[in-house]
Amino acid sequence: MFERFQEFLHNLTQDHPKSGFAPDDPRVAVAALCIQVMEADGKIESSEKKRLRKLLKSQYGLEGRQLDALIAAGEEAESEAVDYYRFTSDLKRHLDSTQRLELLGILWDIVYADGERSEMEDHAIWRIADLMGISDRERIMKRQEAAARVPGSRAETGNDD
After folding, report:
1. What is the CATH code for 2-157?
2. Which residue intervals define the domain Co-chaperone DjlA N-terminal in the entry (predicted)?
3. How far apart are the C-alpha atoms of 90 and 62, rounded to whole Å?
């Protein structure tokens, strides 16, 4: 009997991340989408990791262990996800259209952190934008704004769709 009670308690806490961020916290969805975009081209550069930390710190005012916990929760959520819908549907409910556009700008900043954008990164952001109800025009505008923040990179000379 006691063993079954212990197992029950263990199972209750097993579903909750040790990071301190609930799985349905919109910040976790943002971090997970950023990680998915970082992984889209098959390699995660240190410049992308640094950019992610800087953006999340700036966006949410987190530092140190809190920031590490958010990134860990995002990585955990991303590893369990089968597609973008899990995160975009949650964010679409929590963010207004201006905030969704701002998120798209953050995702483009992640893409350009290494100075270039790949076709796979383009596709990932196109899917995310589509799922969040962001028009092609707005998506391209946000991409151009992000590219302009990376002077001298090959990002500025990219194709405009």
Report:
1. 1.10.3680.10
2. 28-143
3. 21
